[in-house]
Each structure stands twice: as structure tokens, then as C-alpha cells.
Amino acid sequence: MSGLDKMKSRILEEADHSAKEIIGKAQTEAEAIIKAAEEEARTEAAKISEKAERDAADYAERVASSMDMRRKQAYLSAKQDVISHILKSAYDTVMDLDVREYFDMLEKLLEKYVLPEEGVICFSERDLGRMPEGFSGKIKTIAAAKGGSLTLSDEARDIDGGFLLVYGGIEENCTIKAVFDAKREELSDQVNRILFG
């Protein structure tokens, strides 16, 4: 082997050795990069998984809260329906009282609302037609006891039941509907307490 061949051989050996070192180093670095990338991927996957679990828990909580709110609203709506039905039923019961009980109730209502002034009392056509004998005398007596006087109007008014008191052009609405409407909140509270505690 000549000196040139030896030199070539030595250069090739060194190049081969250098290449092996570079390849080994590159493989080690590549393995470290892959290992770091895998670790980073596992960390990111864990973060994504934790976030997904939190998001799922938050969503489940919102759904449960929404369902609870809807349940409460449905319950409240049902309560209001029951209370309204009972008040309507009570109104119907008052309107369907027999004549004696109905006009006894109107007497009490008149005692409460009559003023110590001169006025006119007006009834519905139905009540004018079924008014008990002597009731107009009771009206006069009740008004006089309060220091006033009432004249019974023979002109029927378009009202459900009860009466209107007219003093100097100002009407006091004492119809059954007006009394129920004025007391609706109080009556609703009473029915609510009785039925739902």
C-alpha cells in the first residue's frame, strides 16, 4: 500500500469515525427531542383532558341548574293556576248564592262603603229583578245610620253583581268583581298559606 492509499484509508477511517460520531450524536439529540415532544404532548393531553372534564362538569351543573329553575317555574305556575281557579270558584260561589244570602252579603258591603252623604245606589238588571221586598228600606236605614241618604235607582247598570254608589257624579264601584279584584293579592296569599303552607 502506497503512502497515498494509506492517507486515503486514514482519511476515510476518520471520516467514517466522524460520521458515526455525528450520526450517534444526531440520534441521541433526535431521541431527546422525541422524548421531550412526547412529554410535552402528554402534558398538553393532560391539560386538554382536565379542561374537557371541567367543561363537562360546568355544563352538567348548568343543565342541572336550568332544569331546577324550570321545575321551580313549573311549580310556581301550577300554584298560580290553582290559586286562580280557587278564587274564580269563590267568585262564582258568591255570584250563585241564594237570594237571601246574597242580599245579606250586600247589606254588609253597603255598611262598609256607604258615605255620610246624599247619593244614589245602582244595581244590575238581575239584582233589581230579584231584590227582596223591603230591601230598599234597609238601604235607606243603613245610609241614615251613617248620616247620609241613598236613593235606589230603577235604571239597571251593566255590572256583574254588587252595586255602584254615586255621590255627586262620583261612582264608588262596589261590584263583586271590584271587591274581588281589590282583595285579589290578600286572598291569593291566604289561599297560598292554606294550600301550600
Automatic annotation (TrEMBL):
Family recorded in the similarity comment: Belongs to the V-ATPase E subunit family.
GO biological process, one term: proton motive force-driven plasma membrane ATP synthesis
GO molecular function: ATP binding; proton-transporting ATP synthase activity, rotational mechanism; proton-transporting ATPase activity, rotational mechanism
Domain of life: Bacteria
InterPro entries in the record: ATPase_E_C, ATPase_V1_Esu
Protein name as it appears in the record: V-type proton ATPase subunit E
Cellular component annotations (GO), alphabetically ordered: proton-transporting two-sector ATPase complex, catalytic domain
Keywords for this protein: ATP synthesis, Hydrogen ion transport, Ion transport, Transport
Function, as annotated: Produces ATP from ADP in the presence of a proton gradient across the membrane.
